[in-house]
Specification:
The protein has 157 residues and is of the alpha+beta class. Helix content is 36%, strand content 15%. It has a five-stranded antiparallel beta sheet with strand order 1-2-3-4-5. α4 (113-125) crosses α5 (136-146).
Amino acid sequence: MQGQLQAALALLGVIPPPGLNELYTWYDGVDGAQAPEFLFGEQQFLSLDEALQEYQHIQNYYSSSLVNMAQCFPFAGFQGSIGVVYGDTTPIEGLHHPVLEIYHGISIAFENLDRMVETVNEWFRMGGYDTEPVDEILRLTIRQCLNPQLPAKASLL
């Protein structure tokens, strides 16, 4: 899988940020119909084929003066919300390789892939998904605690 990912990223001109190779070495996405729950909070891990389709969608429909959209590689999504990792070496809001959420705009979701994984693990560990509806206050508190460099307000870029 890592060879396929490297070839796809090279073809697109995307600089792979830290952690992306490891993520796809671990597994090539989840089957949405078979997954018992979401892997990344409210989003499912996209297969490489799905990620490449979403990449083209992003390039066709989104633009930003602050974000180099060509360096946004999608790895997660659900019902129109897309999680991307930013490959450009230029920081966004002081963050290197943040995880962005694209859904009716672009916002910073996590400081980077490692912080995202730590945050999602803590959400599950603390029971953030044990209730219906999901405990949004607990999720927000954990996200802010584990991603202290996020802008105080969820900014749309």
